[in-house]
Amino acid sequence: MRAAGAAAVTLALSGAALAQETVKIGLILPMTGPFASTGRQIEAAAKLYMQQKGDTVAGKKIQLIVKDDTGVADVTKRLAQELIVNDKIAVMAGFGLTPLALAPAPLATQAKVPAVVMAAATATITEASPFIVRTSFTLPQATVPMADWASQNGIKKVVTLVSDYGPGIDAEKAFTGAFTAKGGQVENLRVPLANPDFSPFLQKVADAKPDALFVFVPSGIGAQFMKQFVERGLDKSGVKLIGPGDVTDDDILNGMGDVALGAITTQHYSASHDSPENKAFVEAFKKANPNMRPNFMAVGGYDGMHLIYEGLKKTNGQGGQALIDAMKGMSWTSPRGPVSIDPQTRDIIQNIYVRKVERVNGELYNVEFATIPNVKDPVKAAKAN
Known about the structure:
By secondary structure, this protein is of the alpha/beta class. Helices cover 43% and strands 24% of the residues.
């Protein structure tokens, strides 16, 4: 009996050793519901990264566990808790919208589990936990360059139309602050995030007759906005369409048709970005996911996996505080261009590109024509000064 007991203990210990040899990543994404395109893009990119780089890092097996939070914050929090307690994950990642990134922040702090935000873009997210690091972007980071471009290109009067939640309010504030500081005039409109009907707001835009309409809607909602923009005849009214790149999201741009032509946006990634790294990424992504073009959510997922892999290499497979510390200050060449993780804020520092929607080989693309290099999140940069 004693021998059997010893054998059981040995077996349990070897089981524990085997368990430690696997590093689990919990990828929590909206895979169903109105923001499913975000989940689909990030999952595809994360899986592509693993397919290219293998599933072993620092001698440990990487296991990706994908969970659908349906775009509901309470579900995100419950899934994060289950992944930490039951699955013993070393890292959580994904987070398609701001409320979904904020919900599990206290759990990340408590359990010392790094949380890699691959999508959500409200500036303050990384301040919610010292264990949050971001590989997407912040709305102010993409928006302030748009305000600068508009004021330099003869635009004097702008109406802003944003989804009424964290990132939309961020975009509105960042644009309004930067544009009015340069002498521009702004009128602000906010649209409900759930089931948005843009028509009454677009009628106000038509009545106001601005030089430009600045729009922020979450990734995947742009097609609905564009349809109503045309129905109101605003495409023929001479009002320029400007904003951060979410509205002309690569995932849905082709389906928008000619109405999108000429829209000017500022963003950190376009599928047409001209670099060898991006050409290889787009080709591999399309091959692995037929009929899908990678968008800025995909690059956030791809770079998020890179950050996790390289962090684990530095810590020799260790998670917790060591892993988040290893991620700070890391830099690499992404499909979007050169990027680094700000060691102070754990936000990404990256180029922002000014782009125009053009037809290239029969397809619509956001074609970059100017670069603002190494942009930090302006909200935190202002706090630091």
